[in-house]
């Protein structure tokens, strides 16, 4: 393992301190907790709390700020944060308007956030939750825990955050978050693995000429492995799965080409070039495109494509002001 | 049957058996999970042992609740909330008690099972810890009237059979569920760790 770190056990703490020192205008660390909160607490709106394991930077701390999250909770690398940490975040940012938890659909995340919500409810803090599940690579059937929540979650942070900033009620913010979840789909692929610092070795091995298709944001297996193909062919395959899942025809969409950590922007733009062409050929209008590292998997070389089907309400909320370390509009 | 002083010794013994089996549990988790069951559980029980000295004069409910809350806040992943919930639910059946008998123990295990079912939105047969817990509970009921040692030995044996049966099951909960039929053939780590913990109780009461 070759990384710019000090001690393996200090990775999460030193990273959180580094984020707080880099962005004092946006956020601060909640003393004693692995939680980043907005620099200036908002008291007159629904508060948004999200989080998950570390290793997905800039998610989730990078989206704390005006128009997006009020708090982000960081667990150990690729491990859900614990309920006491999440509850501390909820208590810190809670307002009379209530708290919305944005959870990615992974068993550990869901259990820990739900326990935290129950603890907060016992203290009289009204909490609602939404669970993102945008990954079309995983079958949603009776036989699985359901689809994974991956990079499309960023759109939930942005749009629910904008609705909360407008002063909407907890029910209204939750409803628009659910609307985003119903309309966003994602699928990814990777060509190199990532190494969790505490594990010291890569989570999987991939031959030089192969790729993992449908990979999750922890480097967990996707749908299958195949020989590495030209970027356009990979894009065709991923888009085919995404476009087959919900009907995008005639719609306007927001596109997120998300890097997994070690994919150069050059390659992400090459991917976007073909995504835009395919969508144009299908009569799907691109309203907004995001290209970059939003939800990473440490140093994995990979990417995902997310498509959010838009209506007038979602377009307006997507355009609403946001000012966070990793997302500005 | 089990006094608070014995309970604290049992919990210490649980921590040590998890530590001894840390690598084994993690290896079981490798092909079907995310290779951290032993690491996470060992970290949690290590934290539990640091809390035990302060619990020496506390009642059974407080001891078990502290164990549960400590596991919840230190284990992480899915097993933290599941084991934490199990101990916390069990604690609610014995508030203020200085000693528990077999009737209490059965109520505790039943409450723990209900907690795990609700927290994990799971039922037996899905290749989870419930596939050891529920057979253990059934064996206790079937052995009612026998001595505590006999009942617990029967429960432990039933849990071991349950673990063995998880090999043939398709996982439908947790990360293993994404593997579908590829999860067949692998033994469930959670059912295994529960059986180790129950074994500690069974041998403690055997000796007593």
| Most extensive interface between two protein chains, with residue counts | A-B, 29 and 28 residues
Query: How many angstroms does the end-to-end distance of chain A come to?
Result: 37 Å
Q: Helix fraction of chain B?
A: 55-70%
- The tally of strands of chain B reads 2
Assign the structural class of chain B, choosing from mainly alpha, mainly beta, alpha/beta, alpha+beta, or little secondary structure. Answer: mainly alpha
- Largest sheet of chain B, if any? 2 strands, antiparallel
CATH class of the largest domain in chain A: Alpha Beta
Average of per-residue pLDDT values of chain A:
95
Portion in strands of chain B: under 5%
Instruction: Give me the Rg of chain A, rounded.
Output: 19 Å
What is the alpha-carbon Rg of chain B in Å?
16 Å
Count of discrete alpha- or pi-helical segments spanning 4 or more residues of chain A: 8
Comma- or semicolon-separated keywords:
heterodimer; A: 329 residues; alpha/beta; Rossmann fold; Hypothetical Protein Tm841, Chain: A,domain 3; 2 domains; six-stranded mixed sheet; globular; B: 208 residues; mainly alpha; Serine Threonine Protein Phosphatase 5, Tetratricopeptide repeat; two-stranded antiparallel ribbon; 9 helices
